[in-house]
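Lab notebook, bench 4. We co-purified these components, and the gel suggests they stay together. Before we commit to crystallization screens, I want a quick structural picture of the whole thing.
Request: model the full complex, all chains together.
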Amino acid sequence: DTAVSQTPKYLVTQMGNDKSIKCEQNLGHDTMYWYKQDSKKFLKIMFSYNNKELIINETVPNRFSPKSPDKAHLNLHINSLELGDSAVYFCASSPNRGRIGNQPQHFGDGTRLSIL
Amino acid sequence: GIQVEQSPPDLILQEGANSTLRCNFSDSVNNLQWFHQNPWGQLINLFYIPSGTKQNGRLSATTVATERYSLLYISSSQTTDSGVYFCAVEPLSGSARQLTFGSGTQLTVLP
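Here is the predicted assembly.
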């Protein structure tokens, strides 16, 4: 009954490959996010989707393409992987602001991506 | 955008000691969360505390929204408290919800 689940937990692949990370939440939240944690442990927002629509798209290379088939899922597809993409990617979800009062964001366990 | 500063960046304690971690932010916030990133990399949500004081066991947190800071108190620290503690805030302005994280406090509790 995990609230926000990501797969896979670990992903090791070679430079130039294309890979996807999946995220699902069973909390009934409207908004889902992808955050990236770099090698210095700094966490930064990448994307935010609200009810399947892209809301936030920070300065992320267009090799990264989020896809939200429904509001419970937000997948991250990465084309032509580069060494600098090695990081931990976290998925999160939250209700809309003010819908049922202010509520925290809930995070998945992260996907550790290593590029060889 | 909003700035979030955490202090100290590193903290080493002996088991049983108490500690205070600080988070300063540069603008009014709608949301403030404290997280503990454990050695396995999981982000554990400790507190959702945009204002006021909360306690959970040996941990407590206080946010003084008018003065734009939050404190996380750890009492009687244990080795399992080791890890990185992050403060993250969501600015009051703007319609989109997104958290801006501080750079974290690396806590090491020695046996």
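The mean pLDDT of chain B is 94. Worth comparing against the SEC data before the next meeting. DSSP finds no helices and eleven strands in chain B.
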